[in-house]
Design goal:
Outer Surface Protein A, domain 3; four-stranded antiparallel sheet; 22% helix
Amino acid sequence: MSRIGNKPVPVIDGVQVSVNGSMVSVEGPKGKLSIEHRPEVSVSYDSDSKEIVVSRSNDDRHSRAFHGLTRALLANMVQGVKEGYEKRLEIVGVGYVGQIQGDTLSLRVGLANELKKKIPVGLDVTCPDQNHVVVQGCDKQLVGQFAAEVRALRKPEPYKGKGIRYEGEYVKIKPGKAAT
């Protein structure tokens, strides 16, 4: 029994939901998202109680798995078009700089060349200062994926802690060979 899948998704004021066959579209002030759900589950929208209900046809292993997944994706979509998602990155290191140039994020992080990362459509990436990058958008997966790709360009190293990290991320610093 899926505890997550059985819970209805409450639709916040200002968000419009439309279900057309296997296509579910959610529109709000931050943007518009749509998803095509699997045939193992069915989605219905009750406009009176303002809830999205996800149900499955049988109790197969795949049906149970997609039941909770579909409900979670729809809940993320509703929250994303109303409030949006945000990831904050810190650039730590002497001379390490990040800046926006048009639709490209360029980073100087101690390598011989300047790293450039194209900003996907649907994301709002800003640099409030040279050592911080803020990724915002309505699609939770796209925000997290882009932030992870930027972090992977120069992960924090364990001896001095230099690199790109999530804001508030703890980096365990190892003692060098002089500590032995």
